[in-house]
Amino acid sequence: MKHSPVSLLVAILIAATAVASFKSTSHIATARRTRQTITRLSFFGSSSKNLPKPEDRTYPEAKQATYDLQPGEFGFGPEQIVRPLLKQTQLEKRKLQVVYDAKKHGWSAQAFHSRVDAKGASVVLVKVKGRWIGGYNPRGWASLGGSRSSVAAFLFYQKLIGWQKLRVARTGSMACGRDEFDAGIYFGADSLVIPLIGQRPKSVASRLGFYYESGPENKSTMLPRAGEDATASELYVISGVYAKGEEIPNSGGISELGFY
Ligand SMILES: *[C@@H]1O[C@H](CO)[C@@H](O)[C@H](O)[C@H]1NC(C)=O
């Protein structure tokens, strides 16, 4: 059988068209598969609970404290009293413990340091004339001398209902103004000071506006009377509970990275 050149050309053309259309359908199939993969990936990315949310990738204490409170816990101990204040801190979800109780351990700087050093982030809770005041020190104490700063430190005082937090007034305000074994509590140089030494170890001083803000009530002190020291009736330091062998942030020198 003999083929004419024309019929041969037609046959080649038909074959070429078939190959081209096969190729194009396979392209479409590939594109569809790719689209499905992308859809699956973006679905996975947008809804997966396994992937960290962007806000989880930054440390809570790389920024100033929030004024928001968090729900409390049942109970009347110092740990339960301070719990609402710890939103957006490294202690937010951690079990808490009283590491220093001045009545039990002594109203002295040495007793204070022997109990709080190397315990990491801590809350100071003081009762003055029936009202609670205090401060959060994310850096803790270590009796290493010098000061320990944190942008996330804050002071707080009890209002008729709830709490008022006072943020650091400038970056690097001191969470611990004097980290010395024979010095008591110093938030800033003068914002909340309980020296725990001398004739009046329960003496409390507070001056706001320089290291810590004066707050919405524009207070010059957290104490009942401006320009006058007060006397503490109770004093506690509350720290986190850590598992055996678990690293306690800032238990010694403070983190170079400045996250905590
Ligand atoms: C806050 O109080 C200080 C005095 O302690 C005063 O000089 C200042 O004007 C007050 N600021 C406001 C906004 O009321």
Automatic annotation (TrEMBL):
- InterPro entries given for it? TLDc_dom (IPR006571)
**What keywords are annotated for this sequence in UniProt?**
Signal
In its UniProt entry, what is this protein called?
TLDc domain-containing protein
- Signal sequence annotation: 1-21
Ranges of residues in domain TLDc:
89-163
| Annotated organism of origin | Thalassiosira oceanica (Marine diatom)
Question: Could you tell me which Pfam families the record lists for this protein?
Answer: TLD
